[in-house]
Amino acid sequence: MSTKPTLYTSLSPALLHLYDLSNSVVVIIDVFRATSTIASALYNGAKCVIPVDSVPKAIEISKNIGGIAAGERDGQIAEGLQHGNSPLEYGRDFIADKTLVLTTTNGTRLLHMALNNKADSIVAGSFPNLSAICEHLIADKKNVVLGCAGWKDRFNLEDTLFAGAVIGRIKEHFNIYCDSSLMAEKMYNSHKKDLYSFAPMLTHYHRLVERFGLIEDIRFCLTEDVANVLPYYQDGKLVKG
Amino acid sequence: MSTKPTLYTSLSPALLHLYDLSNSVVVIIDVFRATSTIASALYNGAKCVIPVDSVPKAIEISKNIGGIAAGERDGQIAEGLQHGNSPLEYGRDFIADKTLVLTTTNGTRLLHMALNNKADSIVAGSFPNLSAICEHLIADKKNVVLGCAGWKDRFNLEDTLFAGAVIGRIKEHFNIYCDSSLMAEKMYNSHKKDLYSFAPMLTHYHRLVERFGLIEDIRFCLTEDVANVLPYYQDGKLVKG
């Protein structure tokens, strides 16, 4: 028998409980946009990103520590906050040496679910930091669960495509016996050459672009390695790994 | 605005609650093998199929009505039963004019979940009755939820491929705003010419073929329209619609 670690893909937070997280690295994937934004902020010099599950908590913590409270609900800047969930908001001039306190509809919620399910360790993955994630997973030699944040527990394709991108790069290092992973890799291979032109078919594209005009966000979130850091969860914070 | 009905695909029983079933036709999909077996039995003249959720209930009901108690757990004939979940067991000589009382790990469980979630109506779909399902959904003009049974709440590809086959045939009659449906159709289109040769990559194939040698079952379950009836749920039974 091979002694390679296993790799599974969880297509929705509602399926996460099916996987044993206790001896796995869990990759939180929320391509549009939480994990892309986390990568962007850390890449641009943020001290850390504190993921929280509510707007009041984001406001309270950011006040206490002098951080930036930010987040969205249903794709828009959440009421009571001045900063949202766009990776483009967090350029170096604004975010360097600051702490971002972030709450989002899907991604930060999934991260807390992974914590509650006793994940061995947690990293945040997105196309902007694809290579850093893959290198970490290969070097770590632990079991992996790729956790797609989806949209309010529904499957979405952009998170699945990112899972597929990871699998394509690291699969020879893992035992993969998982239809979700097989599907994710096939979908990514079918569309990797035209992720931009495929994007308008996705439900989340409509939410972000047709309702809120966030086409530049979409471009950033689908570009590989433009914020190539490893966001690693430690003591309540995502820090550069 | 278009007045077409909507179509969604639920990739796992654990996601079914996300969809409004109360004004939808729910298509129960358990390609390997419950819904293929249901189609086979009805096509071969069974009076009806009674889906039940436990082995003792299957035995009790079949005794009371003089039916055939059948079912599997984890891919094998369930303890205490003489008949399993193979569509090839239910040829005309054996099943004509009889009642099949069937319990399975995933498919019949999903059917009961759809009932509990107040589905407007329920039909059972599989490649052997693909055309009958598509014709019914087009004629019915109601909202549709394609419900994949998966494996113990995990996503599986064979049910998703069948959902994709349905979507490819009927999509112009529906409003489809659903990444699961988009993915299912793309996966089916990529593999429709080689479903047999793709099958060995699926986890469920390993379970059925490598452990139990059921290659002929797999062939039947992937062949379109070889048992082209409409299994329609009514008063506790699946009958020919």
Descriptive report:
The structure is a homodimer of 241-residue chains. Chain A is α/β, with parallel strands linked by helices and 241 residues long. Chain A is built from 10 helices and 10 strands. The first copy, chain A, has helices at residues 34-43, 55-65, 92-95, 107-116, 130-140, 157-170, 179-191, 195-198, 203-210, 215-221; strands at residues 7-10, 24-29, 48-51, 68-73, 76-77, 99-103, 121-125, 143-148, 231-234, 237-240. In chain A, the strands form 3 sheets. The first copy, chain A, has a 4-stranded parallel beta sheet, with helices on both faces. In chain A, strands 3-6-4-5 form a 4-stranded mixed beta sheet. In chain A, helix 5 (130-140) packs across helix 6 (157-170) and helix 6 packs across helix 7 (179-191). The radius of gyration of chain A is 16 Å and the shape is globular. The interface between A and B is medium-sized, with 26 and 26 residues.
